[in-house]
């Protein structure tokens, strides 16, 4: 999809989406221009005769001179915010698909006087990209009605262009992440994802190292290798690095859980729980999407992008319950459940991240079913070892419309992880599962600012939610981009 900021005089769209508040129907300057051009369509036909109310998400389409003017309700002026802009843009782009012949749609969203115009433009574009997304690679019949070009109407083209470009970069990163999550595990293997990471590095001028099994053995990634040893797919560990050209403000490592398929291993999952387990690399897909975005946005932050990729499969060579693994940092782990594999792979990567001397470490992982029980499908659980840092990330999420909620990590949770023969085991009791998993991870990082984002609930939706379609959501791509580039 192409996106431009356009002066209304140069508009080519045959569908124009224009916003109205419920409690203020005064026309903005663009609407006044359109109203004059189309003989009072807005002031007379839509507002006076049809009595368009402007309730939030209400739409009304009025054809005039080969063009369709779509009135979009924005609700009460006082309740208007950027989240509403994004959701409205995502939903209307779907509605207008059928109305447009030339597949060009123009947006003129209102301002209530208190929001920044650039933020409105940003969220309109991001919402439109999100609304248009679907994964149709394997459908022989594609949606032919999609909008190809979006025009953001403005009399000040230059002023809005940077915000629109930024939104396009974020939106494209999200689409990349969603595509990768949606791919079957048979396609998105550790080797294939490593190749994709190499392409991102080559295109974006990032450094990349991909480590295979033999190298990882010498690097003591023993907990990670144990998880992958039951699969015919070779495990891979990827490390991308973005270095700013100027002064470095801070250094960050972002880690994504990269289980390309989680069958549970010998502790095999029941069929219903296994159904979506190709998405267990959503953390990896997230950080790779972020890598793509930062290579274009060029923040003054050094960013390391890390992911340990493998399949968790049952076979004659699988790791077994009772095995004792020596993690990269030397701590020993008794395998209590082979389905608690993500934390084992992350343990070695967290220890590796310590060697990079970064200021912050953030891991993103579809780690526990327990976080879904606690927070549902629309809130990401955040845990860590520094409340100020956690609050900062929660605020970053709020800014771009992703909700994170802190869950506790207490020292005595380590008792839950006691093993008779090793330093710890990889699972605790059934209760407080998300927190106990985070407590386990805390044993493998020395970072002063470490945050763990459990996206097991938010990475994939079985029904649409606000601007998000069903399926992969690219959870935390926006939050991490915001955190790194703000
Ligand atoms: N990948 C799963 C967590 C998951 C569950 C992600 C549902 C997405 C949707 C993880 O590896 C897992 O299997 N966790 C177990 C841990 C348990 C054995 C302690 C779980 O949550 O059931
Ligand atoms: Mg598992
Ligand atoms: Zn898993």
| Uncertain regions spanning at least 5 consecutive residues | none
> What portion of residues is helical?
25-40%
Query: What summary fits the major beta sheet?
Result: 9 strands, mixed
Q: What hetero molecules are in the model?
A: ligand BES, magnesium ion, zinc ion
- The total of beta strands comes to 20
Shape: elongated
Mean model confidence by pLDDT:
97
Distance between the ends: 26 Å
Radius of gyration: 24 Å
Total of DSSP H or I helical runs spanning 4+ residues: 15
Q: DSSP strand (E) fraction?
A: 15-25%
Which structural category fits the helices and strands? alpha/beta
Task: State the gist of this model.
The protein has 486 residues and is an alpha/beta fold. The chain has helices at 29-37, 41-49, 82-97, 117-132, 157-182, 190-204, 213-218, 222-228, 271-274, 282-297, 342-354, 369-375, 387-400, 433-442, 477-485, and strands at 2-6, 15-20, 59-64, 67-73, 104-108, 149-153, 207-211, 236-242, 250-256, 258-262, 301-312, 324-326, 332-334, 360-365, 379-384, 403-406, 424-425, 450-454, 460-461, 471-472.
